[in-house]
Design goal:
The protein is mainly α. It is built from eleven helices and no strands.
C-alpha cells in the first residue's frame, strides 16, 4: 500500500512541476482567464439589474448578493475546469502509447486523476495568489466578508468538483477506443458545464423543475454548491446531503470509467515499427 501511495505521489509531484515549468506564462494565462471570466459576467449581470426600470428579483438573490455569487462561482469554476491530462488520454489511445499502462504497476485512471489534480493544485495556488493581490482590495472596498467556516466547508466540495470533472472528461476520452476523435465531445461538455454548473446563471433563477434536477447532478460541484456555501451558507443537513451526493457521483463516475476502459482495452491493438 505504501509503495502504491509513493508512486501516485510521485505522479502528483511531477504533474505540479510540469504545470509550473513556465511560471510566468502559467500565471499570466491564469490571470487573464480568471479576471476576464469573472469581470465580464459581473458586468453583464450588473447591466441586467441597472437596465431595469423597476426592482427585479432573480431567484433568491439581491443585486449585490448575485454579483458576489457570480464572482465566487466564476473563481471556483476556473479551479474545477477541464485540464489537459484527461483530454490527452484520447491521444494515448489513438497513438497506442496507452499500452504502457497495461504492463506497468500503475492504473491509467489513477495516473490521469493524479496528473489532473496536480494541474488543478497549481491552478488553485495561482488563483489564491491572484485573489490576494487583486481581489482583496475590491472585497475590502465593497465591504464583502465571508465566514471562514463556510470557506473551509466548501473545500471538500470543490475537491469533489475537481475529481468529478476529471472523471467526466476521462469518460469522454475513453470513447477514443471506438471513435477517431473526441475533441468535439470535450468542447460540447465544456460549453454545457458553463451553464449546468451554475456559474453563468444560479439555479434558483431557473424554473423549479430544472433547479431540482440540477441539484441532483454532479455539475453543481463545479461551481454552484461551493459558491452558495461560501456566500450564503447551508444547514448541517444540507451540507451532509451535498457531501454524500458528491461521494456517490464520484463512485458512479469511477465505475463507469473502469467499465469503459476494460471493455475498450479488449479491442485495443497497438502496433510498433
Amino acid at each position: 500500500m505504501k509503495e502504491l501511495i509513493r508512486k501516485y505521489l510521485a505522479v502528483l509531484r511531477a504533474g505540479i512541476s510540469s504545470a509550473l515549468e513556465y511560471r510566468f506564462n502559467f500565471l499570466f494565462q491564469l490571470f487573464i482567464t480568471v479576471s476576464i471570466g469573472v469581470v465580464v459576467q459581473v458586468f453583464l449581470w450588473n447591466a441586467v439589474y441597472e437596465s431595469s426600470t423597476s426592482p427585479i428579483q432573480i431567484g433568491n438573490f439581491t443585486h449585490f448578493s448575485l454579483l458576489v455569487y457570480i464572482a465566487i462561482a466564476g473563481i471556483i469554476s476556473s479551479i474545477t475546469k477541464s485540464g489537459k491530462a484527461e483530454r490527452s488520454a484520447s491521444d494515448e489511445i489513438r497513438l497506442g502509447t496507452i499500452s504502457k499502462y497495461i504492463v506497468k504497476p500503475i492504473s491509467h485512471i489513477g495516473y490521469v486523476i493524479f496528473s489532473s489534480v496536480a494541474e488543478r493544485t497549481a491552478t488553485f495556488v495561482g488563483t489564491i495568489l491572484i485573489l490576494l493581490l487583486f481581489g482583496t482590495p475590491f472585497f475590502l472596498y465593497y465591504s464583502v466578508s465571508f465566514s471562514i467556516v463556510n470557506v473551509l466547508l466548501a473545500f471538500p466540495l470543490i475537491l469533489i468538483g475537481i475529481v468529478a470533472n476529471i472523471l467526466m472528461g476521462l469518460l469522454l476520452s475513453y470513447l477514443a477506443f471506438w471513435v477517431d476523435e473526441t475533441w468535439t465531445f470535450h468542447v460540447i461538455k465544456d460549453i454545457s458545464t458553463w451553464f449546468l454548473s451554475g456559474s453563468l446563471v444560479p439555479y434558483s433563477a431557473l424554473p423549479k423543475v430544472f433547479e431540482t434536477m440540477f441539484n441532483y447532478l454532479p455539475f453543481q460541484f463545479l461551481a454552484s454548491t461551493p459558491a452558495l456555501i461560501i456566500t450564503q451558507g447551508v444547514t448541517p443537513h444540507q451540507y451532509l446531503f451535498y457531501l454524500a451526493l458528491g461521494v456517490v457521483w464520484l463512485v458512479v463516475l469511477w465505475g463507469l470509467n473502469m467499465l469503459l476502459f476494460r471493455v475498450g482495452i479488449r479491442y485495443f491493438a497497438a502496433f510498433g515499427n
